[in-house]
Amino acid sequence: MITEQLQPLAQVVLHQLQTHPQGIGEYELLKQLQRTNQTGFPSVALTEPLPLFQMHFLLFHVLYHLREQLYQEKTGELQINPLKIQIMPYQVGQNALTENDPLRDFYMDLSQLEKTTAEDVTTLLAKFWTRFHAIDKRQSALNTLGLQDPVDNETIKYRYRQLVMQHHPDRGGNTTTLQTLNAAMAVLEKST
């Protein structure tokens, strides 16, 4: 059950979702909440890490409550994704809310909002970008080998050996291409 203090915000968010049946992105929803001067959504740039995190957290807290409310009322199923938040038709027999959902647990705990500092947000962002760049490097390395995830290590090694044999300078290949293959394999060995 959502707190009495957050009930007006929940109604505004629900109204926004209902007026966007095709879905709405989190960024646009945050901007709309700022434009309508909702409590907890100050008019600050959405590039300031701590206020952005606080607004994001509060919005997702409300969204998870709305998801449960809609599901219990059998009036809809709320899909929550930063790129697209959308109310979908309720489907009988779906048991999405009984599954273990660590994100839900995090956002439903308001103490997380209270205890998260600017330093914590900076650390979270740094970890995110590190993981993001690692995934990007892995994908680039796989592309060099002509592969895509999901792929196992044996397939990667087999493809690498094939390409090294084909492009080795002793067999008429190109040194630059061989170096590119070696660099890609080095990235892939670190990412497994």
Search tags:
3% strand; 2 strands; 2 domains; DnaJ domain-containing protein; Helix Hairpins; J_dom_sf; chaperone
In brief:
The chain is mainly alpha-helical and 192 residues long.
Task: Write up this protein.
The protein has 192 residues and is mainly alpha-helical. The chain has two domains: 7-113, no CATH class; 122-190, DnaJ domain (Helix Hairpins), CATH 1.10.287. Helix content is 62%, strand content 3%. It is built from eight helices and two strands. The chain has a two-stranded antiparallel sheet. A hairpin with a 6-residue loop joins β1 and β2 (86-88). α6 (118-145) crosses α8 (175-190). The radius of gyration is 23 Å and the shape is elongated. The two termini are 43 Å apart. Keywords: Chaperone. Residues 140-192 form the J domain.
Low-confidence stretches: none
Outline type: elongated
What summary fits the major beta sheet?
2 strands, antiparallel
Number of domains: 2
Number of strands: 2
Percentage of residues in strands = under 5%
Radius of gyration, Cα only, in angstroms?
23 Å
Largest beta sheet: strand ordering:
1-2
Q: How far is the N terminus from the C terminus?
A: 43 Å
Which class of secondary structure composition applies to the elements? mainly alpha
Helical run tally: 8
The pLDDT mean sits at: 91
What is the string of SSEs from the N terminus onward? HHHEEHHHHH
Helix share, percent:
55-70%
